[in-house]
Amino acid sequence: MQPAPSQAFDGKAFVSTLTTSPGVYRYFNEDGELLYVGKASSLKKRVGSYFLKPRMEPRIAAMVSQIARAEITVTRTEAEALLLESQLIKALKPRYNILLRDDKSYPYIYLSGGEDYPRLAFHRGARNQPGRYFGPFPSAFAVRESLNLMQKLFKVRQCEDSYFRNRSRPCLQYQIGRCTGPCVGLINTEDYRNDVRHVEMFLEGRSSAVIDELVSAMEQASAALNFERAAALRDQVAALRKLHAQNHVQGATTDMDVIACRIESGIACVSVLFFRNGISLGTRDFYPRLPLDAEPADVLAQFIAQYYLDRPVPREIILGEAMADEQLLSEVLAQQSGHAVEIKTRVRGDRAQFLQMAERNAQASLTSRIASRQTLGTRFDDLQNLLGLDEPPRRIECFDISHTRGEATVASCVVFGPEGPEKSHYRRFNIAGITPGDDYAAMHQALTRRFRKVAEGEGARPDVLLIDGGTGQVAQALDVLRELGVTGIEVVGVAKGPGRRAGEETLILAGSNRELHPGPSSPALHLVAAVRDESHRFAISGHRKRREKARERSVLEDVQGVGARRRTALLKAFGGLAGVEAAGVEELMQVKGIDRGLAERIYDALHA
Where would I find the GIY-YIG domain in this sequence (predicted)? Predict the structure, then answer.
C-alpha cells in the first residue's frame, strides 16, 4: 500500500522484511512515479546498501531522498533478475536508470519464400512472413546500398508483388540491365532460382564460393563457344571480386559487435561497429539517458542488457571497458540466443584495431553532439527571451496540415526538447469527416484529438505550441484549448513572410495578439523554423503514404462481380487502370467473363 505523502519511507524497516533471494527492486516517489529499477543476487543485501550506509554518492542520495514506496519481485536466478530488470527499464523508463533511447527497430533484407520468382526487399518490423531475413543492418542506408548492389550483381527482382503480377512487358529495370524480366517469362524458374541461391550465399558471407561457381560456369560457357554468356559471367565475377575486396575486413572472422563508450559534459555516446560473416556493415551511435555520475562501465552494462533484449546476438562482443557482471551477461545472452556468446575486453591484433576505431568514432560523435547541443541550448534560451517566458521551454510541439486538393488529409505533430527532435513522440492524425480542403476544420480536429488526453490528465503538456499558419489557424488552437479547459500553454502561429522567403516569418503570439518579426539572424527563429520544417516534412510524408495507399486500392475492387481474376484480366487487357477507365461498355465486354450488365456496372463505377 502506498504511504501518504506526509509519511517518510522507513528504509531500514523495509530491508528487515526482505529475503536473501535474487530479484528485482523498484523505487517510487510520493506521486507514484517510478524512480529506479535494480537487480540483486541478494535483495536484502542490495536494497540494504541504500538505507544502511552512512554516506552515499550524490546521485544515490538525491534518489533515496525521494523514495516513498518500494516493491520487489523475487526471481529464481540472478540471470532471470537481469532479464526482468532490462525489460522493466526499457518499458517503464525510470528517471534514475541509464536508458537506451532507440525508438526504431533495425532494418533487414527480406527474401520472400513460397514463390517461383522470389523478391528482395527492404524490411523493418515483425519477421513473420515466409522467406528469409538477412541482418540486422545498422541503418536503412546500409540496406538500400546492399539492395542496389544485389540488383547490379544478381538481377533478382525487387518490385512489389502487385506490380510484378500485372506486367505485360518488362519494366525499366530490365531495360537498364538490373532485372532478368521474370514478370513476362524472359527467364526460366531454374535459372532464376540459381540467381536467388547466389544471393543467399552472398548475404551469408560466402562470396568466395559464389565467385568459384561463376568462374566454373564462365569456363564451361567459353568451352561451349557461348562467348556472350562467358563475357557476362566474367563481368559479374570481376564486380564480385571488387566488392569482396572493398567490404571484407581482415580479422573479422565471425559475427562480432565492437562497442565503445565515451562520456563528457553529462552526455554519453555508445558506438557500435557491426561485423557479420567477415563483412563490415558499418556503425551506429546511441546516446543513452544518464543519471548523475555514471561511468562508462555502468553505461555499457545497462546498454548491452537492454540492446540485445530483442535483437540477434553475435558470437563475440568486444568492449572497451571491463564490467562487473560480464560473466552473468554472457550466460544470459547465450541462453537467449541459443549459442555461446563471448564478451571480451582485453583484445590484441585486429580486434584491438577495431576497438580503437569504435573509440575514435564514439569520441568524434560525442564532440559533434555536444557542439550541436550547445547551439540548440542557445536557441532555446533566445526563444525564452523572445516570447517572454519564465524559463526556457522543455517541450515544443508543432502542428501542420498536408493534403492534395483535399485528398488524404493528414495532420502532423512533432516534438522538440532541449536535446533536439523527440521522434518517439511524433504523431500523425488521419483527418476524416470534414469538407475536403478545409484546413481550419482539419487543424481543429487534430488539436482536439491531441489535447483531449491532456485534459484527461494523460500525456505530456507542451510549454510552447507552434501552429504552422496565420491568425485563422491560431484561432482554432485557442478554441480547442478553451473548449477542453487546457491552460498554461504558449500558442504561437508561424506565418510565412513576404515572398515566402526564409528568415522573414512572422510569429503571432496568441495571448497578446502581438506580431513579432525576429529576422533571419535570430537564433529563436532558427529553432522555430527548424521545428516548423520538420512538422511540414512529417505531414507531407504521411499524406503521401496515405494517398498512395488509397490509390493502390483499385476502384474495381468495389464493383460487385469483379473478383481478383476478372480484375487482373481487365488490367492486362487495357494495360492498367487508366486504360480500363478509357474503355467503353462495348470494349469492356470483349474481356472474357464480362457481360453487358457487369460492363455497365464497371463503367458506372469508374465514371461516377
Answer: 20-98
**Beta strands, E only, 341-381:** 342-344
Provide the b/e sequence for 84-99 (b: ≥16 CB within 10 Å).
Answer: bbbbbbbeeebebbbb
pLDDT at 478: 93
- Measured CA to CA, the distance from residue 184 to residue 564 in angstroms comes to 19
d(CA 317, CA 332): 13
Highest mean pLDDT among 96-110, 236-250, 453-467 belongs to 453-467
Q: Which residues are CB-neighbours of 412 under 8 A, at least 6 positions away?
A: 399, 400, 402, 426, 427, 428, 429, 535, 536, 538, 539, 542
Q: What is the DSSP string of 216-276?
A: HHHHHHHHTT-HHHHHHHHHHHHHHHHHHHHHB-TT--S-EEEEEEEEETTEEEEEEEEEE
First-residue to last-residue Cα distance in the chain: 65
CA distance 40 to 360: 34
Sheet holding 131-134, edge to edge: 120-124, 107-112, 131-134
Q: Tens digit of pLDDT for each residue in 411-444?
A: 999 999 988 899 889 999 999 889 888 999 999 9
| pLDDT category of residue 105 using cuts at 50, 70 and 90 | low
CA atoms within 13 A on the CB side of 499: 4
Q: Is 161 helix (H, G, I), strand (E, B) or coil?
A: helix
- pLDDT > 90? residue 460: no
Candidate from 10-14, 17-21, 138-142, 424-428 with smallest mean pLDDT: 138-142
Distances (CA, A) of 181 to 49, 90, 188, 347: 69, 46, 10, 49
* Integer angstrom CA distances of residue 478 from 353, 451, 486: 59, 12, 10
Which of helix, strand or coil describes residue 417? Answer: strand
Q: Which of 379, 527, 399, 539 is nearest to 462 (CA)?
A: 399
Round to whole Å and give the CA distance between 579 and 568: 13
**Cα–chain center distance at 287:** 15
As beta bridge partners, residue 20 has: none
Task: Give the whole-angstrom CA distance, residue 229 versus residue 264.
Answer: 59
Q: What are the residues whose beta carbons fall under 8 Å from the beta carbon of 126, sequence distance 6 or more?
A: none
- Among 4-13, 78-87, 116-125, the range scoring the smallest mean pLDDT is 4-13
- In angstroms, rounded to a whole number, what is the distance separating the alpha carbons of residues 354 and 530? 37
Phi then psi dihedrals of residue 511, to 5 deg: -70, -35
> Which residues contact residue 433 at a Cβ distance below 8 angstroms, ignoring those fewer than 6 apart?
445
Residue 289 has what DSSP assignment? Answer: B
Nearest to 272 by CA among 320, 315, 337, 310: 320
C-alpha grid cell, residue 205: 558471407
Residues 53, 43: Cα–Cα separation, whole Å: 16
State whether the Cα torsion 69-73-74-78 is positive or negative. negative
Q: Which of 160, 189, 162 is nearest to 173 (CA)?
A: 160
Three-state SS string over 88-138 comes to HHHHHCCCCCCECCCCCCCEEEEEECCCCCCCEEEEECCCCCCEEEECCCC
Contact between residue 256 and residue 281 where contact means Cβ atoms under 8 Å apart: no
Lowest mean pLDDT among 199-213, 322-336, 548-562: 548-562
Q: Give the whole-angstrom CA distance, residue 246 versus residue 388.
A: 56
